[in-house]
Amino acid sequence: MSSTTGSGAERGFGVVPGWLERLDRPVTTYYVLVGVTSVLVGFGLIMVLSASTVSSLQATNSGSAYSIVISQTVFALIGGTALLIASRLSVATWKRLSLPLLGAGLVLQVLVFTPLGVDVKGNRNWLDFGVFSMQPSELLKVGLALSGGLILSAKRKQLGQVSHALVPYVLPVAMFAIGLVLLGHDLGTVLILSAVVGGVLFTAGVPGRWFAMAAAGFAAVAVTFVVTSPNRLGRFDVWLGRDTDPFGAARQSIQGRYALADGGWTGVGLGQSREKWQWLSEPHNDFIFAIIGEELGLPGTIMVLALFVVLALTCYRLVMRTSDFFVRVATAGIMSWIVVQAMINVAAVIGLLPVIGVPLPLVSSGGSSLVTTMLALGILLSFARAEPGCAKALAGRPSLIKRSFAVIPKRRSGR
């Protein structure tokens, strides 16, 4: 009896160390990134389909309820291709591509102020090429994260001096990029770009006292842009409760909270949203989190938040395990971008922040955001493959196709 109990205890106590040992494997970061990305993109397509049917019927002349989700699926395939290619490139290749990507983003952002640029809800941050449109500031997010890693890794030993920390990454590179977006009046994207720069500088080891001064300057600029824009000032009035007109500026925020309240604990069921019937504008885009809460209830919203937490922890694991300063800094920049953008989107939907107008990464409808975010995650997969032992472990595992053929019995020769 004692021997049986002892062996059972050994088995019981051996469960946790076994799982910890698995989590400590070099391929863990890679596979968790693949899993979380796949789930968020797949779930996003399902929710875009559910949330966009009414908008699709009204926005197209074809009478199709699936035009928006078909477009999103095409962008998901493009993004998947970009992710796959990015994940196969080496870290050295990404170092070489850092500045060209940033330069391409800056050139495209300048083109916003030419006849190719278009205004969307007061923000001039889009390019219309006729066949397709794009938001070049999304490419700037990738460029700022990678170029920050490249520039600051070259100046690693001098980052304690303010001149080396600021020049040339912050001044003029980051400030020029953010300034171009500010000229287009897209304050939401400016917040995300600032988060990328902040994450890069913090991880690089820039002294914390400089962040306080930078935050004060940024707050002054933000307040100036708010008070000089009737649209943004109206959003703050809604957020502060001074404007509660359900048919005016407060409609979006009020209907978003109605959607979450209607969903309650368990939700009204997938595809059964009532708010998407022209009560809530942008149900498939900036306010898709409200539709998730309405249709899938509290479990659906918690699942989405948990996935982003897992993504953040996985990025943090990559930052802590790598010995390459470029990888560490660039990963922190990408992590700050995706996590801060998700936080701002969710906070705006539930009323913790005013409506700023940024999509939920990988989930909301929007081609530029989806493709560039998947590209960024492909870059992280490339970094994860560079972990000691990861590439070798992945190469030693047979592919899905090889495993499939392995179970097919071989034909015997003769009869």
From TrEMBL:
It comes from the Bacteria. The chain crosses the membrane at residues 30-52, 64-85, 97-118, 138-154, 166-183, 189-206, 211-229, 287-313, 325-356, 362-384. GO terms for molecular function: lipid-linked peptidoglycan transporter activity; peptidoglycan glycosyltransferase activity. It comes from Knoellia locipacati. It is found in: Cell membrane. The keyword Cell cycle applies. The keyword Nucleus does not apply. GO terms for cellular component: cell division site; plasma membrane. This is Probable peptidoglycan glycosyltransferase FtsW.
